[in-house]
Hints:
By secondary structure, the chain is an alpha+beta fold. The chain has one domain: CATH 2.40.50.140. The protein is about 25% helix and about 35% strand. The protein has one helix spanning about 55-70, and strands at about 5-15, 20-25, 30, 45-50. Strands 3-2-1-4 form a four-stranded antiparallel beta sheet, with no helix packed on it. A hairpin with a 4-residue loop joins strand 2 (about 20-25) and strand 3. The model has no long low-confidence stretch (mean pLDDT about 85).
Amino acid sequence: MEDAKIVNGVIDRLEGKQAVIKLENREEIYWPISQLPDALTEGSAVQLTLAGAEAASAGREALAKDILNEVLNVSDDGQEN
């Protein structure tokens, strides 16, 4: 995901079914609480990664390939270890 942008923030507060994430630039994003990882609460630091669908897909494919190679014990040059 070379073209991905990373935005850091903190869960500032919970309002109804929404978490209010305050970004480094003081802007706020409203995010559904149901879409947050369970361990996150008010005060938790978060990192949002923004990427186009193609970049995200390429990143997932590269990760899947790395995992398969690790499971199959194959080096980067395609040779078994």
